[in-house]
């Protein structure tokens, strides 16, 4: 059989339609490559959206409408109603005064050890008045409302755990506790003048909430002596909850003057509750002028609905206007 003619190795025969097809294919390939590199869309997944990512980074602080719905449903599902708090199985209601008396007389109503054996079972005895939480009734407003104040202030000033916070007049830590819990160690500072409140804060509230390791810097003082907190940092939030209304106006202004340089410029916030009579008593124009001369700017009045005070709170917001 005669061998079939083989084409010369150097000659490649390409027909015109093949050439057109090859060029078109190359153009389409280059186009697809370029467009994919400019508009990459990831494979579909149930990844969190931008806002969820933010929520994960900035821990949820206030109750959401979903939380409230859940709360209501739990009360309903369990058929719960407020009842009179009377003696019943294993429950022996006492007033604070009765409980204090029990502690003084018997070391607590359910303590059966004899006098000698019952002694010295603690490294640091806690005063009975603190154990019955008398200090929770020191203010007109309920103790638990401190959580609402925290939620409002933390959300309004976009606080993160690394933020730094100063409270003027933290009292028994009704509000401060929640900040101490949320913030990094040593990032909560407070200036408070009342000795009994400070004892309640140190001796009862911090240990009761497992917060000793957060090492809050709480200083006894009443003359706005903020240099005692050290230097080399700026506060993200400075607040006075139910405090400025109890102080002479002059002292409030001294405080503000000393605080301006300690507040983070523009992003840092000062919040004052109830009213700003220290300012309005000067007269509208005079008040603005004085704030301006200090480098402070009034940002507005807020009301905040509350789960635990059963009424809204009023807050006044300021920031540092000059760098
Ligand atoms: C109504 S209590 C509020 C306590 C806390 N801020 C709260 O909301 O739970 C007012 C607090 O301000 C404190 N205070 C008043 N004048 C002060 C001053 N010049 N310096 C520091 N603390 C002061 C009082 O001792 C008291 O503890």
UniProtKB/TrEMBL annotation:
InterPro entries: SAM-dependent_MTases_sf. Keywords: Membrane, Transmembrane, Transmembrane helix. CDD domains: AdoMet_MTases. This is S-adenosylmethionine-dependent methyltransferase. The keyword Transmembrane helix applies. The keyword Transmembrane helix applies. The chain crosses the membrane at residues 12-34. It comes from the Eukaryota.
């Amino acid at each position: 059989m005669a061998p079939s003619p083989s084409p010369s190795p150097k000659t490649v025969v390409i027909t015109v339609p093949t050439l057109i097809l090859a060029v078109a294919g190359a153009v389409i390939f280059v186009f697809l490559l370029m467009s994919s590199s400019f508009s990459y869309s990831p494979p579909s997944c149930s990844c969190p959206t931008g806002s969820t990512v933010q929520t994960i980074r900035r821990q949820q602080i206030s109750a959401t409408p979903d939380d409230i719905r859940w709360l209501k449903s739990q009360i309903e599902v369990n058929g719960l109603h407020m009842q009179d708090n009377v003696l019943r199985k294993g429950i022996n209601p006492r007033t604070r005064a009765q409980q204090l008396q029990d502690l003084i007389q018997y070391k607590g109503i359910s303590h059966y050890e004899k006098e000698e054996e019952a002694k010295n079972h603690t490294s640091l005895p806690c005063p009975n008045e603190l154990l019955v939480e008398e200090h929770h009734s020191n203010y007109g407003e309920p103790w638990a409302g401190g959580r609402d104040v925290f939620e409002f202030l933390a959300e309004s000033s976009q606080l993160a755990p690394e933020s730094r916070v100063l409270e003027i007049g933290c009292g028994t830590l009704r509000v401060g506790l929640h900040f101490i819990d949320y913030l990094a160690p040593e990032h909560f500072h407070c200036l408070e003048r009342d000795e009994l409140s400070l004892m309640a804060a140190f001796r009862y509230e911090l240990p009761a909430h497992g917060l000793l390791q957060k090492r809050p810097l709480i200083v006894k003082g009443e003359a706005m002596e903020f240099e005692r907190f050290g230097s080399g940092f700026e506060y993200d939030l400075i607040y006075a909850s139910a405090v400025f209304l109890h102080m002479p106006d002059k002292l409030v202004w001294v405080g503000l003057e000393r605080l301006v340089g300690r507040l983070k410029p523009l992003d840092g916030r000062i919040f004052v509750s109830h009213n700003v009579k220290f300012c309005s008593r000067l007269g509208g124009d005079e008040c603005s002028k004085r704030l301006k001369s200090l480098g402070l700017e009034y940002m507005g009045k807020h009301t905040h609905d509350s789960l635990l005070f059963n009424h809204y709170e009023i807050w006044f917001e300021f920031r540092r206007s000059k760098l």
